[in-house]
Amino acid sequence: QGNSADGQSKSASCAACHGANGKATNSIYPNLAGQNAEYLALSLHAYKKGGRSGGQAGVMQAFTASLSDQDISDLAAYYASLAPLK
Amino acid sequence: QGNSADGQSKSASCAACHGANGKATNSIYPNLAGQNAEYLALSLHAYKKGGRSGGQAGVMQAFTASLSDQDISDLAAYYASLAPLK
What we know:
- Chain A is an all-alpha fold.
- Chain A has a single domain, classed as Cytochrome c-like domain (Cytochrome Bc1 Complex, Chain D, domain 2, Orthogonal Bundle), CATH 1.10.760.
- Chain A contains five helices and no strands.
- Chain A has helices at 4-9, 12-18, 37-48, 57-64, 69-81.
- The termini of chain A are far apart.
- Chains A and B meet through helix 3 of A and helix 3 of B.
């Protein structure tokens, strides 16, 4: 089970691309605010295992390499908790 | 350039999992409403080329196999145009 507050404290390096409020700073990156926590966790695990290539997959694989399962659950819970922005 | 109205007419098979309004019917699928069009197109091309594995990648690869570049741009424009839902 992810802890959203812990996720926020772990999200500093994510904010550069995904925005402090989960709205991406560039439209080639996904907005994360209000996304489904389970899907977010699945995606982070996929990047970590090298299951995604193309686009920014290389960058994401580098960022996720050091994340524990709990880190992933916390980050997923945090971004899912944010109100989606238009 | 994607055409959102054309995208809507091509989105029937997407709605089963991603919802008629772009809010996924299951939390292991991503919500698409209000996502960045460029990111959506990158993702669809990645699935089509087999650049993603794990989770529902196999299903997505099957769905995207028959999509043209214009179809992908139209679908991306359509889902990006929808108001994100909490």
